[in-house]
């Protein structure tokens, strides 16, 4: 049996697991990426995590096959090019931190690995042509063609959250463009629109607003929440319909915390996608929710190890 250490590094926390090749999670935990409570360099935190996991595996006579790491960045041949939310993620420091373990290290974009987890162990197991989207602070995605993870030339493509769904007058995106799917259909965009609607209508703005809060207000039929969610569904569906028209996948998988709000969420997306999409391109396509939740990134990172 093969075993892998898998890390899903985010802007606020690192989820890490010990996984066998069957996809069984044998140990899992998380640590803050960096905070007042954890001020040490990110590379030191990663080194500490890997040491803890290798010691755990060694105590059970489990041989570690490799280390898989997901990062919120474009990754070219294992090199992290930029990570806007993790400026302290330095390739040289990471290499030095992991050198003592003498294990192969495989790194890829976190959304790619979430999608890979769903393909190997989750909602798309056994299928060959998949579009995966994760909806959160931003929108990430992964694309599988003919059973293989596709990232464009030197893995610099498939930035599905930056599909342009509106013209030059669309919302400004963090990538520098306007009208991106992420700028109109992410949870950040949903929150921004909800605040605008409350302010426009002279309503009190709560001190804390997140996707869960807006969903609760939507279910209570609050006018501003309904309008914001309808805009969210429409924009996300435009992106999904465009991706179906281009790739004609067997399945589109939607993940991210807000996607777990209830059946109404995926049902609204399906209903609107079928209005926008070409019948011929979508003939064999189904649209489903992700199944692995926040475990997808680590399971995908483990799959990255086992597939090499």
UniProtKB/TrEMBL annotation:
GO function term, MF aspect, one: kinase activity
Listed SUPFAM superfamilies: Actin-like ATPase domain
Keyword Iron (UniProt): no
Pfam family of the protein (one): ROK
Keyword presence, Transcription: no
Keywords: Kinase, Transferase
Similarity-based family: Belongs to the ROK (NagC/XylR) family.
PANTHER family: BIFUNCTIONAL UDP-N-ACETYLGLUCOSAMINE 2-EPIMERASE_N-ACETYLMANNOSAMINE KINASE (PTHR18964:SF149), ROK (REPRESSOR, ORF, KINASE) FAMILY (PTHR18964)
Protein name from the UniProt record: ROK family transcriptional repressor, with glucokinase domain
Organism from which the protein derives: Parabacteroides distasonis (strain ATCC 8503 / DSM 20701 / CIP 104284 / JCM 5825 / NCTC 11152)
